[in-house]
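Task: sequence design from structure.
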């Protein structure tokens, strides 16, 4: 197949109300002091980002430069989101 016959298929990008930049490493470091297991931290942030992108309101004051992952990390740092035996509590 020649390159002329290949039609690129663009994947739709997920829409987020939070247009910020990728996660800030200082927030990741601070959040990892609260949740020491990296896999648990990733899962917590991932679940919260999905919630934020589906319309849930942030639990902290935000600025336009914050992305959904930054908001989730800051919520973890401030103790607004905690891990319990039954899952993530807010």
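Answer:
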């Amino acid at each position: 197949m020649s390159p002329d016959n290949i039609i690129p298929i663009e994947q739709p990008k997920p829409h987020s109300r939070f247009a910020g930049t990728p996660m800030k490493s200082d927030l990741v470091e601070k959040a990892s002091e609260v949740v020491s297991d990296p896999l648990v931290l990733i899962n917590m942030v991932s679940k919260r980002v999905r919630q934020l992108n589906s319309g849930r309101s942030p639990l902290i004051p935000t600025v336009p430069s914050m992305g959904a992952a930054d908001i989730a990390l800051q919520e973890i740092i401030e103790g607004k989101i905690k891990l319990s035996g039954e899952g993530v509590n807010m």
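The helical segments are 25-34, 38-53, 68-77.
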